[in-house]
Write a structure and sequence with these properties.
Elements: E1 6-8, E2 14-17, E3 28-30, E4 42-46, H1 50-55, H2 69-74, E5 84-94, E6 108-111, H3 117-123, H4 133-136, E7 139-142, H5 154-172
This protein binds S-adenosylmethionine and 2-acetamido-2-deoxy-beta-D-glucopyranose.
The site of 2-acetamido-2-deoxy-beta-D-glucopyranose (NAG) has 7 residues, from helix 2.
């Protein structure tokens, strides 16, 4: 029995892939340079790591669930853990991005809080009893000085901070 499977991808047209894929499963499809989207041109399903490993391209993030902040810090997916941890807050230290010196690292964790910020995440975590932001985060930074609005949403702070850290991260380089 032959089964052909058509996947709908971002371009809102169907493409044919050469293997049977479970319904609802998200896959990475190598589109190649041929723009023919008819079933005459069959595409390959490739590993999710393929764009980053083969082309050095960003291909989205992975999600890990932790029920408290110490779980975020300690249950790293890397067996050697994180070698540098940064907390972000409007109460953090203000250092202009061009003057921020980060150590070289292999696995950097940048933490963002929710509605009530990281300080409340620390207070709520029984493993971090009596600790303050500066105990948990050796580096606690305000990445948007003179923010103007009373508060910045996490999803806004994320983009602002990634831009802020881009140059310091590039200068720090990767630890061997
Ligand atoms: C709604 S804000 C939390 C505000 C909260 N009052 C606090 O004490 O941080 C959500 C998250 O956005 C990030 N954030 C907001 N403003 C920031 C700033 N000026 N610098 C760095 N991070 C900021 C922090 O990670 C914060 O936990
Ligand atoms: C903290 O979070 C970790 C990871 O999710 C979990 O294993 C642990 O039970 C949590 N501890 C408490 C006290 O909630």
């Amino acid at each position: 029995m032959d089964l052909e499977l058509i996947l709908v991808i971002k371009i809102l047209q169907n493409v044919l892939v050469e293997q049977i894929v479970e319904q609802g499963k998200r896959v990475t499809v190598a589109m190649g340079t041929n723009r023919d989207l008819t079933p005459a041109c069959v595409r390959k399903v490739v590993p999710q790591s393929s764009p980053s490993e083969e082309m050095g391209s960003y291909w989205g993030y992975k999600v890990r669930y932790a029920s408290n902040l110490s779980g975020v810090i300690n249950d790293s997916p890397y067996k050697e853990g994180y070698d540098h941890i940064i907390g972000t807050s409007e109460h953090g230290e203000t250092i202009i991005s061009s003057e921020l010196i980060l150590p070289s690292f292999r696995h950097l964790l940048i933490a963002f809080g929710g509605l009530a910020g990281l300080e409340e995440s620390i207070e709520e975590d029984p493993n971090l009893n009596g600790k303050g932001a500066n105990d948990v985060f050796p580096c606690y930074l305000n990445t948007c000085p003179n923010q103007g609005s009373r508060t910045i949403r996490t999803e806004e702070a994320l983009l602002i901070s990634l831009q802020y850290f881009q140059d310091p991260i590039r200068r720090a380089g990767m630890a061997s």
